[in-house]
Every structure is written in C-alpha cells, then in structure tokens.
Design a protein that fits this description.
The protein is mainly alpha-helical. The chain has helices spanning about 20-40, 55-60, 60-80, 90-100, 105-115, 165, 170-180, 185-195, and strands at about 120-130, 135-140, 150-155. The chain has a three-stranded antiparallel β-sheet, with helices on both faces. Helix 1 runs antiparallel to helix 3 (about 60-80) and helix 2 (about 55-60) crosses helix 3 (about 60-80). The radius of gyration is 17 Å and the shape is globular. It comes from Marinifilum caeruleilacunae. Belongs to the iron/manganese superoxide dismutase family. Destroys radicals which are normally produced within the cells and which are toxic to biological systems. It is an enzyme of class 1 (oxidoreductase).
Amino acid sequence: MEHKLPTLSYELGGLEPYITKSTLEFHYGKHHQAYVTNLNNLIKGTAFEEASLEDIVKHSEGGIFNNGAQVYNHTFYFEAFKANGGGEPKGKLLEAIQLAFESFENFKAEFTKAGATLFGSGWVWLVVDAAGKLSIMQKKNAGNPLRDGYKPILTMDVWEHAYYLDTQNARPKYIENFWQLIDWDLIEKRFEVSRPKIG
C-alpha cells in the first residue's frame, strides 16, 4: 500500500492570518510530505507493507512508527481546520465537554495549558475513552493515543515547525491562533463515530 499526502480542503493561504501560506508550504508541503515519503520507503518488505495507517500507529515501532504516526497526526491536525472556523461546538460534543470539564471555557483553558507546558516537541489530544468520557493527553514526539486504547477527536501540533515562521518562539500566540481555525462540525462528527453506542 502506498501512503499519499492528503489533499487539504482549503488553499495554502486559506487559513491566514492565523496560519500563513509560508507555514503551510513548509509544514504540510515539506514536513508532512517527508513523513509520507519516509514511511513508504521504510515499510517496503516488512509486515507493514500493506497495513493501514491506523494499524501502523498501533503496532509498529522505531522508524516505521515515528513516520507513520507523524503522517497520521499531521493528517488529523490539518483536516480539522477551516477558514472562518473557531467558535464553540454544539450538541452531544458540547454536553460531553461540559460533563468532563464543567464548561467549554474550562476545557479550552486546560487544552491551552497542556499545549503551552508540553516540554519540547509533541502533540496535545482531546480523546474519548471506552466509556465515552473525554480527556486531554500530552504526547511527546510522534506519540498517539490510539496506542493507549483511546480514540482521538482533536489534536494540536506543538512541534516548533508548526509555528516558528509565524510566531517565532511564541507558542502561546500560536495556540491562541489555533482556536480561530477549528472546524467544530468535523470534530463533532469524529466524536459521534468515536463514542460508544448505548442500546
């Protein structure tokens, strides 16, 4: 199976001013593409040659995991954006956020803090457990909550290449911008398919 760089649902300049065209040209066009290329080269002749990306994330190790997880993580990250995004979720997702964090504002503050305090490079995730409860996870490097039995519904990349061209070393400003781009309709759909069905 050949893995491919996914097509974005927006133009490279479509997320400005929050994420610039220059950042997407490097972050999506070069970094994400490099992970795809590396993964395709690494899986040749291995047990993962025909595996799905999710299976690679769950079961591989070493270079195959690092590149496979970064392909998954970046795809998951980029597809959650839209121009004129932001605001708040609705429906069952908002109810679940309020149940887990008391309010959307508390959730946003906790997710923001998790992103600001993750030392070095990595990812912050909003995940669903087997009981349908939401929680926030910090993961170093290429870490992914699928390996821990959780289903992710939102992620934020806090590797420096996600924001250095736009905000230099000001990660808090990047996180502030991140909230202006979230496609909550898509996140709600992810939640609906991830939460356990009752009855």
